[in-house]
Design brief:
Layout lengths: L3 E7 L7 E8 H5 L5 H10 L2 E8 L2 H15 L30 H17 L1 H15 L2 H17 L2 H15 L18 H14 L5 H12 L3 H8 L10
Antiparallel strand pairs: 1-2, 1-3
Helix pairs in contact: 4-5, 8-9, 9-10
């Protein structure tokens, strides 16, 4: 019969602090990391997991988890919590098998992560450092690229267009630090790009491509590279000509 455990994670300081209470089966209990802040605390202060309770009834373990979180104040919003190390982003009792968090619980988790970054400035630097190391690994980048491509291939066409539109709208009005105030991000949108492509189809009957693009640059106040990529189908592919 499957067994479940309730445990406490302690720091390895001279005066150990309880920083996380959890529940899990044997396999999950043996895996140390729980969230980014948990990983930071483990790496900074050391880590020791103490099994407190064992039962064949998952519900009993969840109830005990709730009590221990209250007792040790590991919920990050607890007024008595040690904000530096508290790593429980919920009050417990919600980690049953197949559990899907509610919208409120998702907001709580998100709030906890933001608070972890705010209270531990070094956490962001450390994660950023690890991210840079991963992104400099060609094997990691290749795997990541394949996952993104696979995800896009399986995405319905309508959803893909909606995603591109939202991304475009979110950048609208913002100045790109790389491209300056005349960046396409500051003014272009789906409707303007449609007009650019329509105008280009008319201009190309009378002028060569370079001249047509230059005229469009003047009309829409965009760089040559931006217009050239649009009319060549390199960018804004989701806009039909």
């Amino acid at each position: 019969m499957k067994k479940f455990y309730t445990y406490i994670d302690w720091t390895l300081e001279e005066n150990p602090r309880a920083f996380y209470i959890g529940k899990g089966n044997d396999q999950r209990t043996r895996k140390p990391e729980r969230n980014k802040k948990h990983k930071y605390v483990c790496n900074t202060y050391g880590f020791n997991r103490e099994i407190i309770f064992c039962s064949n009834d998952e519900k009993n373990c969840l109830e005990y988890e709730v009590e221990l979180i209250k007792e040790y104040h590991t919920f990050y919003l607890d007024e008595f919590a040690d904000k530096e190390v508290a790593c429980n982003f919920t009050k417990g009792g919600d980690g049953s098998s197949g559990w899907v968090p509610t919208e409120e619980q998702r907001k709580n988790i998100s709030k906890g992560i933001k608070l972890a970054y705010k209270n531990n400035p070094e956490l962001g630097k450390k994660i950023s450092k690890h991210a840079k190391i991963r992104m400099n690994n060609p094997q990691f980048v290749s795997k990541l690229s394949e996952k993104i491509k696979e995800s896009l291939r399986n995405m319905p066409e309508e959803k893909k267009k909606e995603m591109i539109r939202k991304n475009s709208d979110s950048r609208k009005g913002k100045i790109s630090p790389q491209r300056g105030a005349n960046s396409w991000r500051t003014s272009l949108n789906d409707e303007i790009v449609k007009e650019i492509k329509k105008d280009y189809k008319n201009l190309i009957f009378f002028y060569k491509k370079t001249k047509s693009v230059n005229k469009l640059c003047e009309k829409y106040n965009q760089s040559f590279n931006t217009i050239y990529k649009i009319v060549s189908g390199v960018t804004w592919k989701h806009i039909e000509e």
